[in-house]
Amino acid sequence: MSHDVPQTPEELAEFMTGLSFEPPHGPRDEQALLDSLPPAGTPVMVVRSLRLPVDLDQSVAAAAKAADLPKTAWIRQAIEMALAVQADDDQPISRAEALRALTLLRPARHVA
Predict the structure, then answer these.
(1) What's the angle, vertex CA 78, arms to CA 73 and CA 79, rounded to 5?
(2) Model confidence over 70-106: pLDDT tens digits?
(3) Domain range list for the chain
(4) Left (φ > 0), alpha (ψ -120 to 50) or beta: where does 37 sit?
(5) From what superkingdom does this record's organism come (predicted)?
(6) In the chain, where does DSSP find H-type helix?
(7) What is the CA radius of gyration of the chain?
């Protein structure tokens, strides 16, 4: 059995005497750290781990590349759109109303 963690008071004392501590950061180090922080009021971003099937990940990568966005930005926008569609204050319209609205749109002009 490995004794990576002290098991006896003697081992603990030996472990503690072997520890060394770095001096606290000086004022210049603190200022550099403060300067590296995002500005006050910047939204806090939460990191999430997400498991995707390979084919879905490849589709996301292709869609993000086509939109000239990083994958994380594309996924974030997709989530925002899905949440907007499911919002409680959403006012669904009939298919007929949607088609009527679409027929009023002019086609986009593609510049070559």
Answers:
(1) 100
(2) 999 999 999 998 888 787 776 778 888 888 888 888 7
(3) 52-87
(4) beta
(5) Bacteria
(6) 9-17, 27-36, 54-66, 71-85, 95-103
(7) 28
Which pair of tokens denotes residue 3?
A: 């004794």
Q: Shortest CA distance to 71 belongs to which of 55, 57, 83?
A: 57
Q: Round to whole Å and give the CA distance between 86 and 89.
A: 9
pLDDT of residue 55: 97
Evaluate whether 95 touches 103 at the Cβ level (below 8 Å).
no
Q: What secondary structure letter does DSSP report for 20? A: -
Q: What is the rounded CA–CA span in Å between residue 102 and residue 96? A: 10
Q: Determine how many CB atoms are found less than 10 A away from the CB of residue 105.
A: 7
**In angstroms, how far apart are the furthest CA atoms of the chain?**
84
